[in-house]
Structures are given as structure tokens and as C-alpha cells.
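Example record for the data management plan.
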Amino acid sequence: MTVTVILALVPIALLIALGMVLRRSGLLAETFWGQAERLGYYVLLPSLFVHGLATARLDGVPVFALAGVLVASTLVVAGILLALRPRLGLDGAAFTSVFQGGVRFNNYVGVSAAAGVFGAQGIALAAVANAAIVPTVNILCVLVFARYGSAGRLAPGSVARQLALNPLVVACLIGILLQAGGLGLPPGLEPMLKALGQASLPLGLLCVGAALDPATVRTWLRPVLIASAAKFILMPAVTILACRVAGLHGPAAATALLFQSLPTASSSYIMARQLGGDAPLMAGILALQTVLAGLAIPLVLLILERFTA
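Corresponding structural encoding:
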């Protein structure tokens, strides 16, 4: 399983590096990157979420127990980060990036690893994980941006409007409704959404690499480490506790722990750019967490073996 996870992380790191090279080579016009980010946020990522949630196969999966553990652990870590915010010494925009780095996860790595270990059952478990965490983290992040983003604190009506119009939140709700209603996706629409969703990962990671500035490493090292501690230490610990409380064990518990130990997703950078976060810091968090995941996840896997024994 460790090899599976490492192999899933390698293309992510390479795509980030390629984005950095492309930005500095001048091969693409400077205006390309902003438009690419908007395309990812408004079209590609929503397509990924609708397709993944609507087409999930959930037969024989402890849906409610697994979803409950994932949602509960995410809410607990989100609450801890919010409670610690005054002590972190970060401005509002920087805190939104640390928050995303602590609660978001990389779908691509999670699905690849779960499928590699548990086969068809792993794909079903990964589908439940996505259905539970994706809408949860997107709603939480929109609320945090509304409160701490560079646009300033928004009125309740404006927050509600942001949630109602946020393309990622709307896409999650559509996917869940299609899944719950047993409707799935029409034959012509399903492959189109799948293709668009698959394009979201490489484009998003290229944009992350383009935003990285090695000269600013010292300025964002502390918040990067805070976000990584929340992601690789706090989140797995809370998830293990939640599994104990819920009585979740076996492959379902292993999948919960795996997904809550993943590095943050490329969508976090796109969201930071679009909603007033600290995008360069978010790019730094994503890049370093991808590297740290290669060290942290094998340690988590040693704990995970207890759940699959």
C-alpha cells in the first residue's frame, strides 16, 4: 500500500514542478494562468464532484458509520483550528490557507490508494469518503473565507449567497441528489463530465506550480508547518478516536484513516485565488504537504494495519 500511495504522489509533485517551469519559461502568456484557474473553479472541479458523487457504487458499504466518522473528525479539527486562530499570529487570508491545508484532502491519491489495497470494495469506500468529506470541507471553507478572507467579514445574507452560488458546493449537492435518487448520469453526459473532471487535476497542479515562488519560502514556512501538523498529526489522531467511538473497523476504518491523512488538494489553491485567500501560501502548503505525505503516510499505514488485521 505504501508503494501505491508513493506512486500516486509522484505525478502530483512532477506536475507542480512543471507548472513552475512553464511560468518562468514564458512559454505561456501571463494571462493564461488566471483564466486557467477560473476554468478549473467554475467548470472542471464541479464536473469532477458531480461525476464522482453521482456514479459511486455503494453496495455493502457501512455508509452512515463511515460518513459519520469522516464528518465528525473533520468538524472537530476545523473547530480546533478556529479556536487556535488568535494564537497562531496569522492574518485572515493566511489563516484561510492554513485552515484549508488542515481539513482538505487529495481525492486522486485517496481513490488510487483505496482501490490499490481493497480493489472494488476500496472504490466503493472511497466514494463514500468523497460524498461525506467533499461537501463538508467546501461548506466549511466558504464560511471561513467569508469570515477571514481578504474581502473582509461578510453579512449573513452574503455568506448564504456565497454558499448557494459556490460552484463546488452546488456540484456536491447535485451529485449527492443524483446518487440518493438513483438517477445516475445520462449516457451522453457521464463521459463528458468524467473527461472534464479528469482534466481538473493536471491543470490545477500546473497552476499551483506556477504560483510557487522559492524566494518566499522563509515567510510561509511557519504556517505551512502548522497546516501540515493539523493534517498529518491532529486529523489522523481525531479520526482514530472517532473510529473507536463509532465502532468502525476493518477496511472502512482503514479508508477513513487513509483519507484523513492525505495532503491537501489542488482545489484549495483555486479556491484561495477565487475567494480572497493567501494563494502563494496555499501553493506552498500544497507543495510541501505533497512531499511530507511521502514520509507521513507510511507511518499512518503502520497504524492502519491494525484496522485491517
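Summary line stored alongside the record: The chain has one domain: 2-308.
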